[in-house]
Amino acid sequence: MNLLSLIFIVSASLIFTGIVIRTKSIFSGRKGPGIFQPLKDIFRLLKKGSVYSKTSSYIFQIAPTIYFVSILIGIFFIPFGNQQGIISFKGDFVFFAYVLALGKFFMIISALDTGSSFSGMGASREALFSLLVEPAFFMLMASFALLTGHTSFHEIFSSLHFGSYISYAVGILAAIVLVIIALIENSRMPVDDPKTHLELTMVHEVMVLDNSGFDLGIIQYASSLKFAMYGAIIANFFLTPGYEWYFSCAIFAGSQVIFAIIVGIVESFMARFRMNHNPQYIFTLTSVTLLIFLGVLLILGKIG
Amino acid sequence: MSLIVGIPVITILSILLLTQVRERWKGDVALITVLLNAGLSSYLAVPAIRGDSFEYIFNGGYVFGSIPIRVDALSGWFILLMNFTILTGIMYGRRYMKHYEDKSGSINKGSKNLTIHFASYVTNHFAMIGIYCVQNSFAFLCVWEIMAITSFLLIIFEHSKMETLKAGINYIVQSHISMIFFFVGFMWVNSFTGSNDFNAITQYSSSVTTSVSFLLFLCFFIAFAIKAGFVPFHTWLPYAHPAAPAHVSGMMSGVIIKLGIYGILRILLLIKGDFLSMGYFILVISIITGVYGVMLAIVQHNLKKLLAYHSIENIGIIGIGIGLGCIGVGTGNTYLIFAGFGGALLHTLNHSIFKSLLFYCAGTVYQATHTMEIEKLGGLIKRMPRTSTLFLIAALAICGLPPFNGFISEFLIYSGLFKGINDVPLSPLAFMVGGIIGLVIIGGMAMLCFTKAFGIVFLGNERHELPSNIHEAEFSKLFPKYMIAGLILLIGLVPQIFIGVIAKPVSLFMGSNTLGTRPEEFTDVMQYVSLASVTFILLCVTMWYIKKLTTKSAIIESSPTWACGYATPSPKLQYTAGSFVRPFRKLIRPLLMMNKKEGEIKEIFPRPIHSETHPYDRLEAVLIDFPLMQIKGFIGKFKFLQNGNPQMYILYGVAFIFIILLIPIVINAWEFISHLFHQI
């Protein structure tokens, strides 16, 4: 069975948010909660009752479930070094991106379902930002499809190896782009501040303003899962297929922790952008991925 | 043979019957006719799609010459997908039209209108079967014209409304512009080969240079592109679709614009030339079409107009598939041919089903609320839960999200594009990267658009006082929609069987290459897609049960929406469609034309002010309105001729006859004089 990556990602997700919060508190000179505190919060939420708005319909009730499952299915595609994901086929990253979009679609309409003006605002932003970030992810995958000659996560990552200087540059750029994509997809700084207390400036948090109890719990856990999932994709760049598997395990754990710390550092030292500057910022990502694509063309000797 | 004759005979008999029967039976007569015609044509199409094509030479007498009737796999595919939508269209339409039956005071007037409507519907079906079968240019033009006129009659059903009539006239004028290009194309071929058979196109184009055959292709492409709605030939579409009754809009968007796609594919099969540059051309125009279509769809305020712009977007996606396939033919890459043409064909089917479903749902909403203004609707999911859910399914499908059918065809095109960047040289590669970015952006914008459409129309609270008697549509209106939703899920969940079905039509495009094991390869991948989709649904169900189990003892309450401390939330506080897309609108402002009317805020205690925005199509303003204005200005100079004086008109007639008579005399005189000069 190829459950390895699922097990690793799920276990990484358990502590991911904890590490982020811990990093932030250390940088702001506080002791901060333990790294399992977010997990405990989620457990508490899961057991609680919920309040549903009179305005909302069944969409609001099923949306968190679908959102959560969409991320779980996304994780099924992530390979672990030589080990392929639970499901793997040619072009699986298209399915990956689209199934995540399905989850987002439901979250957006569930925000509109509450009839709250704040939720609608968040929904509008979420829809716009995810529309803008999508090309970056696809161009990144296109670059690696071109570099390796394969079109599935597993084949791409198992045949990926860096040789020349340009390829190192490409690899590092790609990792940076993925970190930024992960930050945007999770509505973190600098696009959105999850800890803000002004509804007008929120994106994701304001969409789930009306969710409570079990639903809120799985939405929050889904966010950790999503982080760990992107962390796993980034880790795959550095895994060493062909070597012993325990090397991979150590590298995987290491890159997840480093990724979490980076997120924490970014959130400690960066301010949130003005909302109307976000589209530019996100769209710049696509041009960076085009740069990666050009780099790959150079490596392959198709141009230059 | 007798089968072919059966279709026009049934159609004529049914038109005669329609004039005689009582009003409430008219819909049923039309339904039976459509069933019979669909059955007969499917009887030819089903073997054709399996590779057993049908050919019969019909003697058209002195005028037409011999009319070859060929039903190959491509025609078969289009006939089958057309039959499905036409059938669900009439099943829904006969219930939809009940609305118009008893309203008219005089029995005759309303009844005649309905007769013409249903007669046009069955004739339209007959004409479209003709378009898919006939391969004689003259006969083709005839059935094409019948199709254009009957669909014009279908559009202007509510002809008492000025807007409807204008939309209809816009449509018929643009249809006839496409007719001009047909004439040019067919006469061009005919003048060199002397044959009206479609095969003459192959014969002619293989005898000329590639640039000439590209020009010929361009001529046919424009003719069909006007019907299909490729940008910049799309301007009739956003008027005609909203004006027509819902089932006709669904049928037009699902089937009639697909005639253009069929035509382009047919011409690509017939023509010989440089497929690479044709592929580039189609790819570029399709990306523009897709992006432009969805961009304008987002800012629309009218639900049906929004859906109409989405048809343009989907034509773009189909076009990207066709362009990819052409590049495959040009580079001899069978993977690209299969993914491109296969994706295009499957998306044609997919679009025809989910778009017709969306239009039928919009029709139900219209009949319940009497408005299509998105901003005025809201909260319909509580009053019409089934219609809302059906709309949601179709909306998810049109966004290309798994596990629905739209994803399958987009996935095929994507896999072709991603595979393509590995296999092809640099210049097609650049186009493919464009294709990937285009498709991704289209997908993202479609999501923005349909979260807006579904979220504002069906969710939240009513944004405007709606009639109090809104209720769910009756079962006979819902049944055709269930049929469509079933097919959407079937394609989405078991796509592998449809790969087998499209293998034969796609193999026509292979030319000298063979299909090889491509269908098996794609079936294999699709099996995994299907597995992933089914897993997704199963996991959702499992998760739902886990939720139910965990929260069994928890207290579930209901209360007003949390308005951040504000105690008296009102429906007016809800986010509107305009504000939902505002950030996007700001982003693409240079490409849009928003006519904005806004009152100024004056005084210390301002009075209520109104703000109106009317999105307008910039391309239409540049390409249609501006030239029209110029022509009008020029023709206006001759207004003095039309002075309303009968004597003057008679004088014009006399002058005309005099000039006509003069021409031979002048020519003769000229010849005589030149003869004289020669002698000297």
Summarize the structure.
The complex is a heterodimer of chains A (304) and B (680). Chain A has 304 residues and is mostly helical.
Q: Trace the largest sheet of chain B across and list its strands.
A: 1-2
Radius of gyration of chain B: 28 Å
In what range is the share of β-strand residues of chain B? under 5%
Strands of chain A, total number: 1
Fraction of residues in H or I helices of chain B? over 70%
Which chains make the largest contact?
Answer: A-B, 83 and 80 residues
- The average pLDDT of chain B is 89
Low-confidence stretches of chain B: none
> How many distinct folded domains of chain A?
1
What's the SSE blueprint?
The complex is a heterodimer of chains A (304) and B (680).
Chain A (H helix, E strand, L loop, with lengths): L3 H24 L9 H11 L2 E4 L4 H19 L15 H22 L3 H32 L4 H6 L6 H21 L18 H4 L5 H26 L6 H25 L8 H23 L4
Helix pairs in contact in A: 1-9, 1-10, 2-9, 3-4, 3-9, 4-5, 5-7, 5-11, 7-9, 7-11, 9-10
Chain B lengths: L1 H19 L2 H27 L4 E6 L1 H4 L1 E6 L1 H24 L10 H27 L3 H19 L6 H32 L5 H7 L4 H19 L8 H7 L2 H25 L4 H24 L4 H29 L2 H36 L10 H4 L1 H14 L6 H19 L2 H33 L16 H19 L2 H12 L10 H33 L5 E4 L17 H4 L1 H6 L5 E6 L12 E6 L1 H19 L9 H34 L1
Antiparallel strand pairs in B: 1-2, 4-5
Helix pairs in contact in B: 1-2, 1-5, 2-4, 2-5, 4-5, 4-11, 4-14, 4-19, 4-20, 5-6, 6-7, 7-8, 7-9, 7-10, 9-11, 10-11, 10-13, 11-13, 11-14, 12-13, 12-18, 13-14, 13-17, 13-18, 14-16, 14-17, 14-19, 14-20, 16-18, 16-19, 17-18, 17-19, 20-21
Descriptive keywords:
heterodimer, A: 304 residues, mainly alpha, B: 680 residues, two-stranded antiparallel ribbon, 25 helices, 73% helix, 4% strand, globular
Describe the structure.
The complex is a heterodimer of chains A (304) and B (680). With 304 residues, chain A is mostly helical. Chain A has one domain (4-300). Chain A contains 11 helices and 1 strand, in the order ααβααααααααα. Chain A has helices at residues 4-27, 37-47, 58-76, 92-113, 117-148, 153-158, 165-185, 204-207, 213-238, 245-269, 278-300; one strand at residues 50-53. In chain A, α3 (58-76) runs antiparallel to α4 (92-113), α5 packs antiparallel against α7 (165-185) and α7 runs antiparallel to α11. The N and C termini of chain A lie far apart (44 Å). In chain A, 61% of the residues are buried. The model of chain A has no long low-confidence stretch (mean pLDDT 86). Chain B has 680 residues and is mainly alpha-helical. Among the domains of chain B are: 332-547, no CATH class; 587-596 and 613-637; 647-679. Chain B is 73% helix and 4% strand. Chain B has helices at residues 2-20, 23-49, 61-64, 73-96, 107-133, 137-155, 162-193, 199-205, 210-228, 237-243, 246-270, 275-298, 303-331, 334-369, 380-383, 385-398, 405-423, 426-458, 475-493, 496-507, 518-550, 577-580, 582-587, 618-636, 646-679, and strands at residues 54-59, 66-71, 556-559, 593-598, 611-616. A two-stranded antiparallel sheet of chain B has the order 1-2. Chain B has a two-stranded antiparallel ribbon with strand order 4-5. In chain B, α10 (237-243) packs across α13 (303-331), α12 (275-298) packs antiparallel against α13 (303-331) and α16 (385-398) runs antiparallel to α18. The radius of gyration of chain B is 28 Å and the shape is globular. The model of chain B has no long low-confidence stretch (mean pLDDT 89). Chains A and B meet through β1, α3, α4, α5 and α9 of A and α16, α17, α18, α21 and β3 of B. β1 of chain A pairs parallel with β3 of chain B.
